[in-house]
Amino acid sequence: MTDRVGIYPGTFDPVTFGHMDVIKRATKLVDKLVIAVAADTAKTPIFALEKRVKIVQEEVVLIGASAGIEIEVLGFEGLLVNFAKENEASLIIRGLRAVSDFEYEFQMSGMNSKLEPDIQTVFLPASEGTHFIASRFVKEIVRLGGSVEGLVSPNVRKELERHYF
After folding, report:
1. Contact indicator for 75, 41 with CB cutoff of 8 Å
2. pLDDT of residue 33
3. Can you list the positions of beta strands (E) in the chain?
4. Catalytic residues, which ones?
5. Which of 8, 22, 58, 91 can pair with 95 through a Cys bridge, CB separation 3.0 to 4.6 Å?
6. If residue 111 lies in a helix (H) or strand (E), which one and from where to where?
7. Would you list the domain boundaries of the chain?
8. What is the distance between the alpha carbons of residues 53 and 47, in angstroms, rounded to a whole number?
9. Helix (H, G, I), strand (E, B), or coil: what is residue 149?
10. Distance between CA 27 and CA 22 in Å, rounded?
11. In CATH, what is the architecture of 5-130?
12. Using CA atoms, how far apart are residues 159 and 165, in angstroms rounded to an integer?
């Protein structure tokens, strides 16, 4: 039997406890998880692609070991389905915080299925304690001098403070 590879794509600018929750739960669905850090995005990230990849790598190092699976963090450009095929993934894993997320993600999963029918999308709803966390809010809180304790790790907080101050 071949290993089931899943792709969890995102901008991760920065990676939050919401992302980490999805990552931990995704490890129960796959034998290998590839966290795909997007270079091509409509968003304007504050961190360069290489920096985002490095931060996510530091954050997930213990998760794969405790789950007993391989987690790889890679930056990517272009179509997600092409990246998924290159990494032999059969699943795309997406987190959902709200109904508005679902509408966008549902349309995206339909388009991805049209482009590559062998790759399925799996939606993981946000856990009760993380559904309100969004990277854009975290960045704004830090920029305005507020506390992001409980939203991101101390390492991510330091990176954000280094960027803004």
Report:
1. no
2. 98
3. 5-10, 32-38, 70-76, 91-96, 120-125
4. 19, 43, 97, 135
5. 22
6. helix 99-115
7. 5-130
8. 10
9. strand
10. 9
11. 3-Layer(aba) Sandwich (3.40)
12. 10
Of 17-26, 33-42, 81-90, the least confident:
33-42
Average pLDDT (54-70) is: 93
What pLDDT shows up at residue 48?
A: 96
Nearest to 16 by CA among 145, 129, 98, 163: 129
Separation between Cα atoms, residue 52 and residue 38, nearest integer Å: 9
Phi then psi dihedrals of residue 64, to 5 deg: -60, -45
- pTM (2 decimals)? 0.94
Give the C-alpha separation, 18 to 22, whole Å.
Answer: 7
Closest CA relative to residue 55, chosen from 165, 162, 164: 162
